[in-house]
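A favour, since you know our structure tokens better than I do. Could you add the entry underneath, on a fresh line?
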Amino acid sequence: MATVWQTLQRALSPVEDRPRVVTNVEAAAYTTRGGSQYVVVHNPTARTYARLDPREFELLGLMDGRHSVKELVIAYYQRHGVLALARVAGLVGLLRQQRFLTADPADVYATLGGRLRGRDGRIREQPFVTSEVDTFFTRAYSTGGHLFFNTAWLWVGLGMGVLGPAVVLTELAAGRYALYDVGGWGALTIVVLLALTLVALAIHELGHGLAVKHAGRRVHQAGVRLYFGLPAAFVDTTDIWMAAPAQRLLTAFAGPWTGLVFGGVLALAAAVAPTDGAGTLLFTAAFVFLVDNLFNFNPLLELDGYYMLIDFLDRPMLRAQALAFVRGTLWVRLWRRQQLSRDERVLALFGLGCVAYAVLAIVLAVRAWQALLLPPIIANLTSRDLLRQLLGLVILVAVASVALLFVGSLVQQVAQPVERWLEWMSGRAAEHRHRQALSALRAVPLWSAVPGPRLLEIARAMHAEDVSAGTEVVRQGEAGDRFYLIARGAFEVRVDDRAVVRLGRGDFFGERALLQRSTRAATVMATESGQVFVLERYDFERLLAGDLAVRQRVEAALAYRDEVAAMPLFRDLAPVELDVLLARLAPLSVSAGQTVMRQGDAADRFYVLRSGSVRVERDGAELARLGPGDAFGEIALLLDVPRTATVTALESSTLLALDADGFRDVLASYLGRASELERLSHLRLLSHKRLDEVV
């Protein structure tokens, strides 16, 4: 009989939490271009969204307040044959964070920790927004906005995108108009250009909002916020995630397309208008509208054109991957004269294009400063008119503020490498790195067999490598000879271009490379900038060559862990998560003919067959024969019920056993990491595309 304390412990355990999904959840299922299926769920009340794997979406039907988290894990296992503790724990954490669950349990420790930490001191941006904007967009769309999404009008818009720039260039060549000249007063020109830019951005966002209504979705918010120190309109297009992928592409396209239509109309009006004040204003407006919206079609910057491209190609991290490839791997491939794959050619072309455009943008910015801003600022500051002097000073301060923000970000990026270089020169960095590596190694059960002094030598042999987002640290199919230990950052493991699991601080990969020079079984890509400690296979062999006993123990631990990790049941577990489970799995051996469990006996253990084979019988009739990797007795992890079958070893076999209390403790430890687990890439919507954009 359970004691009062045991009963209380189980009642308070997050494993016994019985999540209940809110009743009005909306769901839409889609398929990527690569054939992967996913489901987007939406809570209209909380205005929250999440992207789920179809297998995870199935669990929402069981989140009715009657099934515990522990039962959800078992249900997932029974349906898909995977003990997905991290996946289920992360799913529950994500749904709770996104307010898909009712009657959320109070996390007293998190609340207390937040009170103790207090405010972080950062200034929060507080944009002016209005949530009653959907009615406006609904009326605008029904009144006439829907006409712009007619196929004919879409072609008209594309035509305007070509005709408008042609007219502007023709007018400039004919000398009828001059750029940056409104009324002959430089300061007035700057003010007019800024005002026209704000209007162009507002109409751009209007196009996004109308596209959301065209898809039959809601515009939750719209308003104005500061962007690089200047006010800019924005429209919340989050709800478009519930629409088909083609509608999402159209929404991204509609913003700059709307601006091009207006720009083309203004250019034609300027062409037929007299070259007085009105004509000059029309021409300047046409130029601003066309430049702004053509700029937004640029796929080399993270604007509408880029998001259209990654939606079309289904490559969420294309820019980060391409830049990381150009920074390193490309030149290694070229130096070794290795042929680039089709995917690598795409990354090289896109990455080099991004770099070339960045250089061009700097040159254009300097030219624009020289031609547009510098002359009127100097003229105003040196004039004898106090009003013009004040106006020139205001413009100078505004430009300087934006420039300082840009320079500050560059300095911050440069300062960190310089600081690390100075530390390296002083020798402090190496000692600090050694301590970090040693601490990380001690946290990995894999190295528990290595004595302290030898472990210190291994830590000193490890070197740190900074990894930028998008970098493929290892690639599936390539030869492996390095072991990696994650110091910081987030990494995604992909097998056959399918995301399998996410790794974070304390996780490791490439352990097979320490035993043999085998090809990589998966690709590991950094989804955030981070740092890894690297151990070369040569150093591993050198340091343990003279200590055969320790080497054999480490190799045995590596082989055992690798064997368990290869079992289908555990394929969704990250290295650290697998280590937590291995600590509670008890190995045992049975001889041929020995009964592992008997029908009608009390149940308290779950078994995984490591080697050998067993026969499953019920009431004397054979139900199945199981082999390595198969599991049985999972019902014991849920309830203290009698065994429903008899299992007998057909030959000498080895098993891994996990009792009910051990399973509860393991799952509780995963739930304790939910803040990290909920960041799994296949669960995050924001990792694919921005939802609340300012352009």
Summary: The longest strand covers residues 37-43. Residues 548 and 554 are 10 Å apart (CA to CA). Residues 386-426 form the longest helix (41 residues). Residues 4-12, 116-126, 674-695 have pLDDT under 50 and may be disordered.
